[in-house]
Amino acid sequence: MLEENLLHLISLIMMLFLVLPGFLYYTRKSGVPAAFRNIALWIILGIIVVLLYPLYLAS
């Protein structure tokens, strides 16, 4: 189980390295307020997914 958790952590770090440069480029190009708006939207989307996931498993 520990090995599986470690692999998930490594995959999340790899995804961060893939997404972060694009995010930084977009932030410089469009400005900080637009970036914060997009971060807020993604956080809200993530919360919705987390809340609806158990309902999907129950059916």
What is shown here, in short?
The protein is built from two helices and no strands.
What does this molecule look like?
With 59 residues, this protein is mostly helical. It has two helices and no strands. Helix 1 packs antiparallel against helix 2 (32-58). It is flat, with a radius of gyration of 16 Å. The two termini are 27 Å apart.
Shape descriptor: flat
- What are the segments in which pLDDT stays under 50 over at least 5 consecutive residues? none
| Proportion of residues in helical segments | over 70%
| Number of E-state strands | 0
State the separation between the terminal residues, measured CA to CA: 27 Å
Beta-strand portion reads under 5%
Radius of gyration: 16 Å
Summarize the helices and strands and which ones pair or pack.
Elements: H1 2-30, H2 32-58
Distinctive features:
single chain, 95% helix, 59 residues, mainly alpha
